[in-house]
Amino acid sequence: MTYEDRLQAFVGRTITPRTPGQDPVNIPMIRHWVEAMGDPNPIYLADDAAKATGRPGVVAPASMAQAWTMRGYAASMDPAGAGPAQDLTALLAEGGYTSVVATDSDFDFVRELRPGDHVSAEEVVESISPEKTTALGAGRFVTSMRTYRDADSEVVATQRWRILRFRPKQATAPRPRPAINLDNQFWFEAANAHRLVIQRCADCATLRHPPGPCCPHCQSFAWDTVEASGRATLHSFVVAHHPKHPAFDYPLLIAVVDLAEGTRLVTNLVGVDAADVAIGMPLVLDWLDADADLTLPVFRPAQER
Fold it and tell me: What's the CA gap between 24 and 248, in Å, rounded?
């Protein structure tokens, strides 16, 4: 069977069997949602307001349908939960389509959900496109239909969900720009001159990082800087493999380092393999000249210096 045949064999297949959400529709989650979305509609939290519109009581925002059935982080990391959806992801990765971006989502709402409703969802693959050339890279559009049901198996919503699984372009991309503002501009300007500085309170001499307008210890707004020695130890680290961004080399070592002066810094480790990294290892400062406008401090093992 060809690779294309193996992919198309998923069309029409249920990749997520009907699975109930972890919790029924409930007011606390609705409250978090509307606060995050800035939605002031009172029918979501006040019974009187909902009843005034002819509803029996509060209802959940329609767009929360998907939220009630999300598996959560722990379940997504459980190998026992692997199934057809993971099989399809693995097959796409086999073809080099290792990156993903959502392209569109079309909902059809049948009825409003109310507190106490227990929602379940199943997902069926509708189509997998031939390889397409996109701005992100060559990829395939995977379209599926999710059906949401209540405890009585009645359909409450459907969602046609389309994602692009793509092969990242290998061309070099500019490193993402940091968010520079009036409080941290001095730090990036010093870095561009290959100087690692630490903000210091001019009144109590407390060092602080990240930079900020006010000393957290004495609340003074007066400050100056001291230049770091460049010596550090590794406090913690992670090895990033995915999702990949063309501006970075992978595996990407992201670290929190303890500077000799006492503050911590989030940075990258260079000049070392992930297998050789150890918490507490001595580090020294190096510089990454990302481009003409951006230089960042990085650290390498002290013995490599």
Answer: 42
Q: With respect to CATH, is domain 185-304 assigned 3.40.50.150?
A: no
Angle at 220 between CA 216 and CA 222, to 5 degrees: 120
CB 251 within 8 A of CB 238: no
Q: Where in the chain is the domain with CATH 2.40.50.840?
A: 185-304
- Taking each continuous run of H as one helix and of E as one strand, the counts in the chain are 6, 14
Whole-number Å distance between alpha carbons of 50 and 58: 5
Q: Chunk the chain into consecutive blocks of 10 residues (it has 305) and report each block's average pLDDT, rounded to whole numbers.
A: 95 95 96 95 96 96 93 70 85 93 94 97 96 91 97 97 88 82 96 97 97 95 97 97 86 96 97 94 95 93 71
User: Is domain 3-21+80-166 annotated with CATH 3.30.420.40?
Assistant: no
DSSP 178-228: P---TTTHHHHHHHHTT--EEEEETTT--EESS--SS-TTT----EEEEE-
Q: What single string gives the DSSP state of each residue in 87-151? A: HHHHHHHHTT--EEEEEEEEEEE-S---TT---EEEEEEEEEPPPEE-SS-EEEEEEEEEEEE-T
